[in-house]
Design goal:
Belongs to the short-chain dehydrogenases/reductases (SDR) family. This is 3-oxoacyl-ACP reductase FabG. Pfam families: adh_short_C2. With about 240 residues, this protein is an alpha/beta fold. The protein has one domain: NAD(P)-binding Rossmann-like Domain (Rossmann fold). It is globular.
């Protein structure tokens, strides 16, 4: 198992890509701490445990600094370490530039960008003390190329890439790697109801002529969290079927 005896925190681990990451990491031997506001996170943790894995669920928002710090302290106290942080939690509030409200802009910044900062700042002391850590944060290919109607979202994902590279320089000497993953269009709960004709148009625009499933993205996270990527840091791994070629 590639993550045997590792302690991994996965934010937004209740559904979609986060759920796939949680399940895959547990299968690979990690104890998975799912951190989310959605109650279905408990179902994911229960399912992992029923399958012989190890998982916990905690209702904590990535925007609540004191709650994040308290949870991380609790996890470190219980297990003696935190090996992996997966900054996956994210939201969208799509609207064109002229129609986007300040509240919609701020909400996405708070979760997708500041939430990643809060969680990484909270975990850093524990990883430094253990001289080991894997930080993998959710970017997006729209952070590389922009996207119509996603001023706020694209800005956060570009920011995540820049922060990840910065943390590589700041934390590398402590044995901590920091990377980002930029998925393309992925079949998650948020897009389940997309019209068939729209989905076909999206497929046609992708060189591989298909869309990603959550597990396709989760395998990228597994690689960057594993020992196989011990010398990989400061990269943004794009998993989008060749769209951002």
């Amino acid at each position: 198992m590639r993550l045997k005896d590792k302690i991994a925190i996965v934010t937004g681990g209740s559904q979609g890509i986060g759920k796939a990451i949680s399940e895959l990491f547990a299968k690979e031997g990690a104890t998975v701490i799912i951190m989310d506001l959605l109650p279905k996170g408990q179902e994911v943790a229960n399912s992992i445990s029923a399958s012989g894995g190890k998982s916990e669920f905690h209702t904590v928002s990535v925007t609540d600094k004191s709650a994040v710090e308290a949870l991380f302290e609790q996890v470190n106290s219980k297990y003696g370490k935190i090996d992996i942080l997966i900054n996956n939690a994210g939201i969208t509030r799509d609207r064109t530039l002229e129609k986007m409200s300040e509240d919609e802009f701020d909400a996405v910044i708070a979760v997708n960008l500041k939430g990643v900062f809060i969680c990484t700042q909270a975990v850093a002391p524990y990883m430094k003390a253990n001289t080991y850590g894997r930080i993998v944060s959710a970017a997006s290919n729209v952070g590389l190329r922009g996207n119509f109607g996603q001023t706020n979202y694209a800005a956060t994902k570009a920011g995540v890439i820049a922060m990840s590279k910065t943390w590589t320089m700041e934390l590398g000497k402590y044995g901590i790697t920091s990377n980002a993953i930029a998925p393309g269009f992925t079949m998650t709960d948020m897009v389940d109801n997309i019209p068939e004709e729209h989905l076909e148009a999206i497929k046609a625009s992708i060189p591989l002529k298909t869309v990603a499933q959550p597990i396709d993205i989760a395998y990228g996270y597994l690689y960057l969290a594993s020992e196989e990527a011990r010398f990989v840091s400061g990269i943004c791994l794009t998993i989008d079927g060749g769209t951002s070629r």
